[in-house]
Write a structure and sequence with these properties.
Layout lengths: L3 E2 H8 L10 E2 L1 E3 L9 E4 L12 H6 L4 E4 L8 E3 L3 H13 L6 E5 L4 H12 L5 E3 L9 H6 L8 E5 L7 H9 L3 E4 L7 H4 L2 H8 L12 E4 L3 H5 L8 E5 L7 E9 L2 E8 L2 E7 L4 H16 L4 H10 L8 E5 L2 E6 L5 H13 L6 E6 L8 H9 L9 E5 L4 H9 L7 E4 L2 H11 L5 E5 L6 H8 L2
Parallel strand pairs: 3-4, 4-5, 5-6, 7-9, 7-10, 8-9, 10-11, 11-12, 12-13, 17-21, 18-19, 18-21, 19-20
Antiparallel strand pairs: 1-2, 13-14, 14-15, 16-17
Helix pairs in contact: 3-6, 4-10, 4-11, 10-11, 12-13, 13-14, 15-16
Length: about 450
């Protein structure tokens, strides 16, 4: 972060400050553990904490001032109506100091992988700042913006949401110059009510963009393709199945740990390879290719960027140990991403058995059982030899699978992670493949760790 005058911050946040404001702020913090001399502490309020309780401590640790919603004894307070909005406003003011390309990315599933692929492509031309992990909410996003400095030439910013209005506020703060929406699923449908409302919430990414900022959409998503977009905005479509697009893929071939395919665009055709499996990741790569074209990155360099991308953490991470292939996809789950995970299991090279280990999908609302049953219907097509389930709703996977002819004798439901891990430990052998897929709250990565002990 480059230094900001406290007087600038007061103007950006729109609050009142009864002290001299001639100091320079060197960093912004929402956690007293990261306080530095002359930093600004913002007292956020959460479900289980209130930053106001730590305002005085922040001053003792070296903060020049604190942003609060009320006076706090022992602290020089910049008092605002909402500290959460102040964080967004300060980050937005700071972002406006940098005249750089900024790619905003959102969608129901796949946005983090797409963000990382885009960053890999953009990094071929620019020194690029990107959202770390999934710090894509109204706290993580502005913190990322405050990481800009004079060495940064471009940024790739991910925006997630649980409710209407969240992406709008983030977009206004970060002012994307290019917008990407990956798909419209059913994640958080219990809060938004319908996929149509989810579409509206995702389109809020345009609220902070210029009227002519390019928009990149997946042509394979029916809701995105039918979305009404202001006619003055250039929209780029990409697809793995439809050729009436700006960018589309052909000759998709599964390879060990990845996919090879051809990318077709106005300038011709290029062969590409990515180091992660699944057709859904081809879509993510096409989105990144579109961004590269928009930013005038040479197509050959875009291909290099895609080849350099590697998935991180628990997002479809393929690991081979002692001759066993593990597909760890334990970070999040929704019907579309579950189907994608099943397709990866189908493509896995396994001389032995394929084990499909599925945990609950969370936050799907009143139709949760129905969504789980629908995902179960895809299990037979995954070439799974056994379906192993954990979680309250996961029994519906079994019912859906058996409806489509999967052998019920090859299904099991477990009440604890320990029991599931023990079963895998006793049965999985060299040459087998194991898919772990479920919502983050199901902690299936713990099953993976337990079975390897």
């Amino acid at each position: 972060m480059e230094k900001l005058k406290l007087s600038e911050i007061i103007k950006a946040a729109g609050g009142s400050f009864g002290y001299p404001a001639d100091v320079e702020i060197s960093s912004v913090s929402t956690d007293t553990r990261t306080i530095e001399k002359n930093s600004l502490f913002i007292a956020l309020k959460g479900a289980n904490f209130d930053g106001h309780d730590f305002a005085a401590q922040a001053m003792e640790l070296g903060a020049a001032a604190v942003v609060t919603e009320k006076p706090v004894e022992g602290a020089r307070c910049l008092i605002v109506d909402s500290t959460a909005q102040a964080l967004l406003d300060i980050a937005g003011y700071y972002r406006n100091k940098f005249n750089i390309p900024l790619v905003g990315v959102t969608g129901s599933v796949g946005k983090t992988t797409t963000k990382d692929m885009i960053a890999a492509v953009v990094s071929e031309k620019y020194n690029t700042l990107k959202t770390q992990g999934n710090l894509n909410n109204e706290v993580g996003m502005p913190k990322t913006l405050l990481g800009l400095d004079n060495s940064i030439e471009a940024a790739v910013i991910e925006m997630g949401m649980n409710h209407k209005g969240e992406i709008s506020r983030m977009s206004v703060s970060c002012r994307p110059t290019v917008c990407v929406i990956t798909n419209i699923g059913v994640s958080h449908i219990e809060n938004l009510g319908s996929q149509e409302n989810i579409l509206k919430a995702k389109l809020e990414i345009l609220d902070g963009a210029a009227y002519d900022a390019p928009l990149i959409l997946c042509r394979d998503d029916k809701l995105l393709y039918k979305a009404e977009i202001y006619s003055g905005r250039r929209v780029y479509y990409y697809s793995v199945s439809k050729k009436d697009c700006d960018v589309y893929a052909t000759n998709i071939t599964a390879e060990s740990g990845g996919v090879e395919f051809d990318i077709n665009y106005e300038g011709g055709r290029l062969h590409a390879k990515i180091n992660c499996p699944g057709e859904h990741n081809v879509k993510n790569a096409l989105a990144a290719f579109c961004v590269g074209l928009v930013l005038d990155i040479p197509p050959e360099d875009i291909i290099k960027g895609l080849a350099a991308f590697k998935p991180e953490g628990m997002r479809q991470n393929v690991i081979t140990e002692k001759g066993i292939t593990y597909i760890l996809d334990c970070y999040n789950a929704a019907p579309d991403s579950m189907k994608a995970g099943l397709s990866v299991l189908a493509q896995a090279k396994a001389e032995g058995k394929r084990y499909c280990v599925l945990g609950d999908m969370l936050e799907l609302g009143k139709n949760s059982a129905k969504y789980h049953r629908t995902v179960g219907e895809y299990v037979k097509g995954s070439k799974a030899d056994e379906l192993l389930c954990f979680g309250e709703y996961s029994k519906n996977y079994i019912e859906g699978a058996c409806d489509k002819g999967f052998d019920r004798e090859k299904t099991k439901h477990f009440d604890t992670r320990e029991e599931l891990a023990q079963y895998l430990k006793e049965n999985v052998k060299e040459g087998d493949a194991v898919l772990f897929k479920g919502s983050r709250g199901m902690k299936l990565e713990e099953v993976y760790e337990l079975m390897r002990e």
